[in-house]
Amino acid sequence: MEMILNLLAPQSQHRRRFAVQRTSVVGLLALVILFAAAASHASTTTESEASAHASPEPFDPWNGMDRNGRIPSVAIPDGVKNPDRWRYLPEARIKPGNFIDRLFVTSFVAPYVFRNSDVGTGGGLAATDIDFRGQRRREFIGGFASYTSEGQQSYGVIWERWMNHLELPGGGVLIEDRSFWRSHVRYSKTLTRRFFGLGPKSRERDEASYTDELVWFEFGFERTLPTPGSDWIVGLQVRGEFHELSGGKVGGALQVDDLDPDLFRDAKHHDLGRLLGLLRYDTRDSPVNAYRGWMLSGEIDSAPVQSDGDAGSVFRLLGTWVHPVPGLFHDGGDDDEENPPTDTFGVGFRTELTAGDMPFFALPTVGGGEDLRGFVEGRFRDRAAWTAGGEYRVWFIPRGFRVPYTEGVRVERIGAAFFYDAGAVAGNGGDLFDVKVRHSYGIGLRIMLERTAPFRLDAGFSEDGFEFSASFGFSF
């Protein structure tokens, strides 16, 4: 679910996370992404597979769940390594049949709308099959198409397959969601990218814009070592990016070509062959929506192949810590519950340093929906950056509800969050802590469709004013 939801909106400026699992997206209302080929997946499933997975009884939307939405824990078979790292999906979340049969249970088609200060207000069509090819929730494929009031158009397809998947004798499946293969293809044309200049003293009134036409493809994986669910994770991703820059269309803003002609000329027709690698130590109970534990990740985002012959890399260090706190509106569930309601307090940080030559649009930035949420996307940019933040999350509707007139669509729970962010950019790492630190704070709404699909709407405040953002997945 995580990757489905991450791609449901206009693409924001270059982000700093490994892969696209935390791509800064701003979808105001979106459930899933569009891919028409998913409708025919039943024909690719063998007769033996269909027979093995067919349910002898009519689909029961409560199979494996209590009527109040509680999912009881199940016994993990002997021999399963790191049993607390496997996510249980009951039969109620695995409806048999083709794409149409499973509509609004494990397949979706829906329009969506969004708002972002970088690309304007827009809408699109999205669909996804989170049980692609009848793999019992092991594989998904999806796609999306959108257009905005500022002229951005975006189209993409994504596929993902989890490496570790286990059928349970009593029904349902276990998925270890730290290990997966992923592929992604996207085209977008954005007329209103923003650039405020390089350095910590960039001014809001120096706003400039440019158009970025982008073709993007990637393939990669993440895998736990030495066994499924272990704390150590390695990842590798190969990506190709083809950028064509031209004049921007933001009313009243400068052109980047006027603000910094040399910088714009060097990036105007720029292609990059990128190699991203990570080594992570992660004790959290979930990589997407953690209730306890910590993570430290070292990442190298390298562009050894560029169309102008340059080469460069961005070195990244990220960390998070999350701890459960007493619930304000619930009792925290019980020990025999899968994914009980849990209020948490968390902190996160990110540091980035650039080596070699990179086009300006690939340099570290702060500001937007992932950090410094009170500033516009990419408000500050330079060769080095750091951000840190804290967030208190509470669930005031802990059990959620089934969406009326649907067979299997549930909102699992609804809550709120209070957050504070800080960060800065500089020309090099040595100057990072000698420059002015920017601050933002705010409040947000949290809606969980299932544990790997948290949706957030954040209202952030800063010295620049107010910014609204929305995305799937937490900022840390």
Describe this structure in words.
This protein has 476 residues and is mainly beta. The chain has one domain: Porin, CATH 2.40.160. It contains four helices and 25 strands. The strands form four sheets. The chain has a 19-stranded mixed β-sheet that branches. A hairpin with a 4-residue loop joins strand 6 (139-148) and strand 7.
Outline the fold blueprint.
Layout: H1 2-6, E1 27-29, H2 47-53, E2 71-72, E3 87-89, E4 107-116, E5 120-129, E6 139-148, E7 153-167, E8 173-195, E9 208-225, E10 232-247, E11 254-255, H3 256-259, H4 261-267, E12 269-282, E13 293-306, E14 312-325, E15 337-338, E16 343-356, E17 365-366, E18 380-381, E19 384-397, E20 401-402, E21 410-411, E22 413-426, E23 438-448, E24 454-462, E25 465-472
Parallel strand pairs: 9-11
Antiparallel strand pairs: 1-4, 2-15, 3-8, 4-5, 5-6, 6-7, 7-8, 8-9, 9-10, 10-12, 12-13, 13-14, 14-16, 16-19, 17-18, 19-22, 20-21, 22-23, 23-24, 24-25
Question: Briefly, what is this?
Answer:
Helix content is 5%, strand content 49%.
